[in-house]
Amino acid sequence: xxxxxxxxxxxxxxxxxxxxxxxxxxxxxxxxxxxxxxxxxxxxxxxxxxxxxxxxxxxxxxxxxxxxxxxxxxxxxxxxxxxxxxxxxxxxxxxxxxxxxxxxxxxxxxxxxxxxxxxxxxxxxxxxxxxxxxxxxxxxxxxxxxxxxxxxxxxxxxxxxxxxxxxxxxxxxxxxxxxxxxxxxxxxxxxxxxxxxxxxxxxxxxxxxxxxxxxxxxxxxxxxxxxxxxxxxxxxxxxxxxxxxxxxxxxxxxxxxxxxxxxxxxxxxxxxxxxxxxxxxxxxxxxxxxxxxxxxxxxxxxxxxxxxxxxxxxxxxxxxxxxxxxxxxxxxxxxxxxxxxxxxxxxxxxxxxxxxxxxxxxxxxxxxxxxxxxxxxxxxxxxxxxxxxxxxxxxxxxxxxxxxxxxxxxxxxxxxxxxxxxxxxxxxxxxxxxxxxxxxxxxxxxxxxxxxxxxxxxxxxxxxxxxxxxxxxxxxxxxxxxxxxxxxxxxxxxxxxxxxxxxxxxxxxxxxxxxxxxxxxxxxxxxxxxxxxxxxxxxxxxxxxxxxxxxxxxxxxxxxxx
Length: 562
Fold this sequence. Notes:
The protein is α/β, with parallel strands linked by helices. Helices cover 38% and strands 12% of the residues. It has two domains: 39-151 and 197-365, Response regulator (Rossmann fold, 3-Layer(aba) Sandwich), CATH 3.40.50; 384-557, Glucose Oxidase, domain 1, CATH 3.50.30. The chain has helices at residues 3-6, 11-14, 20-27, 57-71, 85-88, 97-114, 129-140, 165-176, 182-191, 204-215, 230-249, 253-256, 259-272, 277-288, 295-302, 319-324, 327-337, 353-357, 418-426, 453-461, 523-532, 543-551, and strands at residues 40-45, 74-79, 119-124, 144-148, 155-156, 162-163, 384-387, 395-399, 407-416, 435-439, 469-472, 484-489, 506-510, 516-519. Strand 13 (506-510) and strand 14 (516-519) form a beta hairpin.
């Protein structure tokens, strides 16, 4: 094999007499003569001590470095930014969350593209790390593997019960309702996050890591190996070693990301009860891979895939419990044998999904109650429902996991922005039967499409989770549950009907019957309001948020920038 074949891209940087200056700089960071003949691998580490999701990634990335060396490659580790959804939640900082997905993808593209890396190994933890890394992989289309930092272990509550980050958000609502003291809140606060790793339930981080494993871009067990485990370190080493093999075989992300593998990814999301954010992120990944994928594809799969996992927020278990009963491969094996997956999709192991699962035991072969039997699911169809109607002609997303009722008609309580709604909740102004409208939080208007976990968790904590509806052009955390509808498109800032809702208007959410959200006002009145509507001024004029607002598309198309 010639050098150019062994390192198809990096030879542009390192081969030939005219590249002596380039090699001179690489020698300064440790390269020796033999290294210039081997594949050059970029290792993107999203390590940061601003969040427990990423605080251990430096250690895992170093294991990846060892694996690349063992496989015969030359590793180059570099940093990429992260932002912490949990810490930014409930205030202005959350506007940077979805924006960070694009910044991560751009940052990795800049380094790996500029260095002409032959392969890419990326380590991420918090929510937007994963789609950001995979978007960059699809964009660069060089052999790539993603390694998830792993899930946090559960904390121990005051009664010895398992708790997690959502427990403390809900504790705030319990205190507001007078059902929990300040000292009780403090006890939960101190125990909710016991160490390194991403949020423990089937929230966005675990949703996306599971989707990426099912898609074939990470190793088996990558989504369910705990953050603090020798298994996660072994996985990191093996990923580095296998990546060099991918380079030699020239298996690239766009060979792996196909309509079939996207169906596999979303099928696992539905079976596990995953986050609404999966819809945004999978659309963005499909866009970068140039795979045709729309809201209709999500709706099609939702109608046939049952919700099987009794995982938080709609259930009672966390990812560590799934790990104990066989992990994500055991669930994938069950779904494959039930006919829900495409087993012929190629993966980063160089084998097909079916070949990866050949020696794995089906999750149903052992006694467990984390994954329900197919005959007795949590819900007979998927829990993420695509809605339309005059409030969302271009689409919206509802999450119905664990709900007793998926319909409501009630008076609108209208809030321009999350802060106004949070204030009303703290003052106990939301009553059973209300339909809360939070607008001006879309990709453009926010800007940044904030998540509403602080709001929805406070409502649950006050005991209103089953008795109200909530509609927003923003997003929800994977930790949100209740009758909530997000991603309303067109958004308020762009003149969507949600901008025309008045206080007290009758609103209907029918999440599973007609799959609609409706403003029960005559069309003539809606037209009159539309004529009188004045587009608001942008909230941001300079900086990354302003750039994002100028370039971002609709939530109904993944909120991707151009």
